[in-house]
């Protein structure tokens, strides 16, 4: 079993490819050509990279973090100004997965609050570093890769509990 897991964003989308034993096969970031590009171009570039990854690795599952619809008050100066662009990025990645993956029923959405359970990002990053020594938090300042890995681990462990994967 192989899962491609993404933590969406319009500037950085973290990804991880994991096997059924929760081992990391690959991890990294999908990035726009230029961070100053308009939102739609950044998201389109990230979706192109995501599509190529799906085609290249042929995962059994594609797992996408879905927004709980809230932005922490410490982000975007408390105004939640990024939620609409974030939502567009999530939707674009979801549509890309639905159109690219061979089995639409294996494109899985998991709400961020379901798997993060209110644990702060810094603590999630530290935990990923303890579990996966190959994860380098110095190369993941925003925690996007850590969140993709954490979401993948959550998905795999919960699927096994249900007798799935």
Compact summary:
The protein has helices at 39-57, 83-100, 112-116, 121-131, 144-161; strands spanning 2-7, 13-19, 24-30, 61-66, 107-111.
How is the largest sheet built, in terms of strand order?
A: 3-2-1-4-5
What is the C-alpha radius of gyration, as a whole number of Å?
Answer: 15 Å
The number of domains is 1
> If you average the pLDDT, what whole number results?
90
- The outline comes out as globular
Continuous helix count: 5
Note the beta-strand portion. Answer: 15-25%
The CATH superfamily title: Ribonuclease H-like superfamily/Ribonuclease H
Residue runs with pLDDT of under 50 for 5 or more positions: 76-81
Structural category: alpha/beta
Q: Could you say what the CATH topology is called?
A: Nucleotidyltransferase, domain 5
Q: Which second-level CATH architecture applies?
A: 2-Layer Sandwich
In helices, the fraction of residues equals: 40-55%
- Specify the biggest β-sheet: 5 strands, mixed
Ends distance: 7 Å
Q: What is the count of β-strands?
A: 5
Name the CATH class: Alpha Beta
Order of helices and strands: EEEHEHEHHH
Describe what you observe in this structure:
There is one protein chain. It contains five helices and five strands. It is α/β, with parallel strands linked by helices and 165 residues long. It has a single domain, classed as Ribonuclease H-like superfamily/Ribonuclease H (Nucleotidyltransferase, domain 5). A hairpin with a 5-residue loop joins strand 1 and strand 2 (13-19). Helix 1 packs parallel to helix 2 and helix 4 packs across helix 5. Mean pLDDT is 90; it is low at 76-81.
């Amino acid at each position: 079993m192989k899962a491609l897991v993404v933590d969406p964003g319009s500037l950085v989308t973290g990804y991880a490819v994991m096997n059924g034993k929760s081992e990391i096969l690959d991890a990294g970031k999908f990035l726009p050509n230029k961070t100053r590009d308009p939102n739609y171009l950044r998201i389109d570039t990230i979706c192109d990279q995501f599509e190529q990854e799906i085609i290249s690795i042929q995962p059994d599952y594609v797992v996408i973090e879905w927004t709980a619809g809230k932005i922490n008050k410490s982000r975007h100066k408390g105004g939640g100004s990024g939620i609409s662009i974030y939502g567009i990025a999530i939707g674009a990645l979801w549509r890309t997965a639905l159109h690219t993956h061979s089995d639409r029923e294996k494109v899985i959405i998991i709400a961020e609050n379901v798997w993060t359970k209110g644990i702060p990002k810094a603590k999630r990053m530290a935990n990923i570093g303890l579990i996966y020594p190959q994860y380098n938090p110095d190369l993941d300042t925003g925690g996007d890769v850590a969140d993709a890995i954490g979401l993948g681990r959550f998905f795999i462990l919960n699927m096994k509990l249900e007798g799935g994967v």
